[in-house]
Amino acid sequence: MTDAAIPVTQSAVERITEQYLQSLGCTIEKQDNQWVIASPDSTHSELLTDGLTLVCGDEDDVGGRDNFEPLHPESAFFQRILSQASERCPTGKIAISSAGNDIRIPEWLRQSDVEVSDADFAPYYDRTAVVILYQVTIETVSEYQSEFLRAIALDARSEEFLPPLEQTFLELTSLDGATVTSDQTEIDPTDARELLDTANERLIERIDETIDDIHHEASRAADAEVEEYRQMQQQRIQELQEKRSSLSSKVDELSERIDSSEEAERVEALKKRKELKSELQDVDAELKDIRRLRDQGFRERQSEIRERHALDVRTKPVTLTEVEYERGEVEFELTMGEHRRTVTVGYGSGVGVTEAIDCASCNEKFSDHTHLGSITRGLKCEDCASLEESRHG
Amino acid sequence: MGSYDLVDVEVTHESADDLLDSLSGDSDSEDHIQSVQAVRLQAGQPDSELRSLKQLDEDSVKLLEHQVDAAYRALFEMDGKALLADEVGLGKTIEVGMILKEMHFRETDNSVLVLTPAQLAKQWQEELREKFGLDFVCNYDDEFEGFDNHDYIIASIDTAKSERHRSTVLKRNWDVLVLDEAHYVKNEETDRYELIDNLTYNYAFFLTATPIQNELTDLYNVVSLLRPGLFGTRDVFHQYFVNSNQETLVNRNELQDRLNEVMIRNRRADTDIDFTDRTIDTRTFHPSPAERELYQAVSDYVKGAYSQDQGQKLVLMLLQKEVVSSPAALKETIEKRLYEQSELTHAEELETILDRIEAIDAVTKQERLLDIVEEARENVEKGRVIVFTQFRATQRQVLDRLASEGYTVHSFHGGHSSEEKEQIVEDFEADGGVLVSTDAMSEGRNLQFCNIMVNYDLPWNPMRVEQRIGRIHRIGQKRSVYIFNMALEDTIEEYVLDRLYHKIDLFQQSVGELSSILSRLEESGTSFEDEIFERLVNADSEVDLENNFDDMAVDLQEQRDLADKLEEFNSGVFNGFDLGASDD
Fold first, then answer.
1. Does the pLDDT at position B523 exceed 70?
2. Range of the structural domain that residue A20 is part of
3. Chain A: residue nearest B14 by CA?
4. Is A255 in CB contact (< 8 Å) with chain B?
5. How large is the greatest C-alpha to C-alpha distance in chain A, in angstroms?
6. Does the distance separating the beta carbons of B32 and A90 come in below 8 Å?
7. Of A12, A224, A314, which is closest to B14 when you measure between CB atoms?
8. Quick one: what percent of chain B has pLDDT higher than 70?
9. How many other CB atoms sit within 10 Å of the CB of residue A201?
10. pLDDT score of B580
11. Cβ separation of A183 and B36 shorter than 8 Å?
12. pLDDT tens figures, B139-167
């Protein structure tokens, strides 16, 4: 599953900053690595000050001058740009039409030896989908914290899951290839909420493996900690036992002295014995306590550790894009040697093939793993094709 | 790996109200794509490239691809906690240098503690300064004022764990901890392990070529210090990964996956490191009778004085080294003792030594040096030769002699400013001739344009010898390298050369291999220089002396064999991973 994040390179930083400032109505005069920004009076943004100059690249070049701001991936100015730009318009609508877009050949066909000599898409009707970008945070003890951004695409009516559309969406909104324009959404907030609920479920299914990996790591760490605690307590028990036996022999020793000594010494010894006995009681109490806890498997401590290592998975939808796309049928003209065959299959612009096709022989569905192998006697998967070939010599 | 159900997973879907509100808002939808891009950039990794690399001086350090890669992975893919376990000689110190440089650049290194075996501490300090411009104070420096008074410290791990410093070291919250030769903390019952276990730090880089010393538990211990819990409990680790006879691994693939999260191991075979040939020519000469008498007189004095007062060890050791370097070097120290420090106990002996120095007309080594430089003048480009000596007085004498014979000479020592040093090296490259240098010649200097080096005298610390050689025999040297060692017969130098250095094949070892041998030696509680000196002064006869040095050679050879064996063992274990072979 593709990560929706874009690597923050200096050129990406400069590109989005330029676009954002221009969208605010600013003009930018570039002199080497310095950009002098002029903003119209009507623009109200706390980012913009009179005579603002951005210095691209290293912070060292700014040298504490007034109105000079460094512009690089970690600069505070850039972070503010990102934060304002991301909040400005989190919802919108785009359209993916078949016109001007290449037909997306499915993987089972692309990876095949069969050649696609022609492909023709006939759109029959418009459909609406939504693509939601989710921020996902998986947090446990800081060691394993993980943050990522995921796209989930659903058909707005059927709630059908459209993974290829996610990819198309990410390509269309990349910094390099963003030629698509956006518009006001038309989707009803109530419908959108329902779609979000479904998307939430889909998202968790999609990141299940990641959660599982982190869960294993956290569990191992917790297990090690419990074990360490157990060993520590075992050690404490041993120490207490030793202390107990030493106290106990001292008490015995004193008892003997008490029986055999003079009055004054006896009183002293009695006093001492009393102290030691009380200490012995404390040791006994502590020992009893630890043993009891041990027999119960240190339940409280375990649950405390378990709680601390627990995974906190948080998801937050951050953008929602309504995507208008076309559905219809695509006709693939297939060639393999001298054999030709035409296949017509359900298709959506930006979505790709929407219909599953089975191997004529084994009925296995063609997929990323099951490629088309032959078109001579119907569409057959690679396995069946090679079996057939060996049979027919 | 076992069934783990200890911890809960709680999933929270945060409210989407803000997002839904914006559906009915009047925001300018044209900017939606920009918002999507901004969100995607917010989630992107902040420019994860080594931005400090361009600040490095290419002449000081030549970075190799596997080193840059390791530094990158340790910083950005392992979140700053990594076990750097390259095979020996691939430059783990350089990798850490890069990491520290990058952290310095990004200002995430307010306090850095580098713990090394004692013998390597100064070398670390030099390398980080020369190659990366990073200034660290070392616990052996005069200005070292304790672990709470400096922010960038290189210290011997044993100093750090000592009663005197332990609590201060533990009290601080270090940003970065570097632990060299990390396999020495493999045993969880030692003070060293306890120190590292109790240290507080945000980032840690452990270095070792041999993570496994005896058994796989070593690996468990070292990795658990870095990433507690990665392998679960000790028992589970054993049950799951180790066959009961301790010799074979099971579930290798999973072990490899886990290790990949924390360990980087480059193998020599996978890198393109290629060194040219190195030819060693050790020349021993008959000393003149006067030189022989002087050597004997000094050795007798040293032996006698040491037996009376062991507190003078350092100065006595110095005299013993100087007498084989040059009469001039010896003379300065003797005069200082006599006239400045008013040495009275042995005044007569010292006066005699001075007389014997005066009696020397021709210095044999100096005369024989002329043969080497003449040979070079006839055979190599611009007759470039570097002559190394430990002593300034020797340097002066050699320079005078060479100049008087009409050679172009250059002098390099610690007293020059950095600009001057730069100029000297440039002049040497341009004009050719002989550069006579003390060991102040930094490692960072680029001297690959010269391929002949003379050890006019011999440091007793093998690392020093290797460092000298490393200044010309390094990546980028295109010609074969010739090393000439000069020694007088039947002197300490001959013993060190013949019995020790040649026996361990010192002149063919790489720095990495040497440091692993020396660290092993140190582990057994020995300093190389002290060992040489003690064996020298404690010998009652010539035969005794020979036996003493033979013993030491045997020890060294043993350490070397052990180091080789371990390296081989670790290669075996880790190579098995790469092949994906599994015993299960």
1. no
2. 10-88
3. A316
4. no
5. 122
6. yes
7. A314
8. 86
9. 11
10. 35
11. no
12. 989 999 999 999 999 999 989 999 999 99
Chain position carrying tokens 């990794």: B45
* Residue B240 belongs to some domain of the structure: yes
Taking the C-alpha atoms of residue B492 and residue B529, their distance in angstroms, rounded to an integer, is: 12
Radius of gyration of chain B (CA): 28
Residue B188 to chain A, least CA–CA distance (Å): 13
User: CB–CB of B19 and A82 under 8 A?
Assistant: no
DSSP SS3 for A274: helix
- Residues of chain B in contact with residue A142, where contact means CB-CB under 8 angstroms, are none
CA distance B183 to B210: 7
Strand order in the sheet with A34-38: A27-31, A34-38, A53-56, A68-71
Please report the residues numbered 434 through 463 in chain B whose beta carbons come closer than 8 angstroms to any beta carbon of chain A. Answer: none
Does A42 reach chain B within 8 Å, measured CB to CB? no
User: Which CATH number does the domain housing residue A257 bear?
Assistant: 1.10.287
Final residue in a domain of this structure, among B358, B385, B414: B358
CB atoms A89 and B32 under 8 Å:
yes
Check CB contact of A183 with chain B, cutoff 8 Å.
yes
Residue B284, SS3 per DSSP: strand
Assigned domain for B206 exists: yes
To the nearest 10 degrees (0 to 180), the angle between helices A10-23 and B32-43 is: 150
Q: Which CATH number covers residue B549? A: 3.40.50.300
Helix (H, G, I), strand (E, B) or coil at A7: coil
Whether A236 is in a domain gets the answer yes
Q: Are residues B233 and B103 in the same domain?
A: yes
Q: How confident is the model at residue B23 (pLDDT cuts 50, 70, 90)?
A: confident
B318 and B387 both lie in a single domain: no
Residue B475 has pLDDT above 90, yes or no: no
Measured in angstroms, the CA of A393 and the nearest CA of chain B are apart by 38
User: Residue A173 and residue B18: Cβ atoms within 8 Å?
Assistant: no
Residue-wise pLDDT tens digits, A80-135: 999 999 999 999 999 998 776 788 899 999 999 899 999 999 999 999 999 999 99
Position A47, amino acid? L
Nearest CB among B38, B44, B232 relative to A7 is that of: B44
Query: Taking residues B367-381, what's their average pLDDT?
Result: 89
What is the span of the domain harbouring residue B553?
A: 278-285+361-570
Band (pLDDT 50/70/90 cuts) for residue B61 is: confident
Q: How far apart are CA B39 and CA A136, in angstroms?
A: 13
Over residues B213-224, the pLDDT tens digits come to: 667 778 888 888
**pTM (two decimals):** 0.60
Contacts of B40 in chain A (CB under 8 A): 4-6, 133, 149, 170, 173
Q: Is B12 near chain A, with CB under 8 Å?
A: yes
End-to-end Cα distance, chain A: 41
8 Å CB contact of A93 and B32: yes
Kindly state whether A371 is in contact with chain B, defined as any CB-CB distance less than 8 angstroms.
no
Pairing label, strands A352-353, B409-412: unpaired
Q: Provide the CATH number for the domain around residue B71.
A: 3.40.50.10810
B19 touches chain A (CB under 8 A): yes
Residue A248 distance to chain B (closest CA, Å): 31
Instruction: Nearest by CB to B12, from A4, A309, A314: name it.
Output: A314
Contact B488, B365 (CB under 8 A): yes
- Three-state DSSP class for B4? coil
Q: Which residue has the tokens 């879907």?
A: B13
What's the CA gap between B160 and A114, in Å, rounded?
69
Query: How do residues B309-358 score in pLDDT, each as one tens digit?
Result: 877 888 888 999 999 999 999 999 998 888 877 666 778 888 899 999 99
DSSP B306-342: HHH-GGGHHHHHHHHHHHHH-HHHHHHHHHIIIIIS-
- The last residue of a domain, from among A309, A327, A355: A309
Distance from CA of B82 to the nearest CA of A (A): 13
Per-residue pLDDT at A319 exceeds 90: yes
